[in-house]
Design brief:
single chain, alpha/beta, Rossmann fold, seven-stranded mixed sheet, 7 strands, 22% helix, 27% strand
């Protein structure tokens, strides 16, 4: 477990320790779990900045999925931000084109609320759980 004081610290950690690795054969997936308002979307916003995305990153709560073009990273060309809070199962995710998205090795997927989607297997992912502490720091667990 690692305690960080800002979401920016975590975004930098991901950039330095995960996105600096060689490209994989499929999309790179980061799952984000935690209570409402803990900073899942804020983390995606900071990560997008690290990737050179300048357009505003907003929560995909109502549209479920948003995509952004990345032009300044060695191998990430697309950031896909999914908020699965309102999804129920694997079929719901497949309707979004999940099978095509995960086959693209130039895609980074930030997947909020993965525990809401039953029947989906997410092998080889970075699983992050965020918890807000009383002193306004966040406890970041890598599971």
């Amino acid at each position: 477990m690692k305690t960080l004081s800002t979401i920016n610290d975590l975004a930098i950690w991901i950039q330095d320790n995960m996105l600096s690795l060689p490209q994989k054969k499929q999309a790179t997936i980061i799952t984000l779990s935690g209570d409402l308002g803990v900073g899942k979307t804020a983390l995606v916003q900071e990560l997008a900045k690290q990737l050179g995305i300048i357009e505003p990153i907003t929560s995909p709560t109502f549209v479920i999925q948003k995509e952004y073009t990345v032009s300044s990273h060695a191998w990430v060309r697309r950031l896909v931000h999914i908020d699965a809070y309102r999804l129920e199962n694997k079929t719901d995710l497949e309707h979004l084109g999940w099978n095509v998205i995960i086959d693209d090795p130039e895609t980074l997927i930030c997947f909020e609320w993965p525990e809401k989607v039953s029947g989906i297997e997410l092998p080889d992912v970075l699983r992050i759980k965020l918890q807000l502490n009383s002193d306004h720091t966040r406890t970041i667990s890598f599971i």
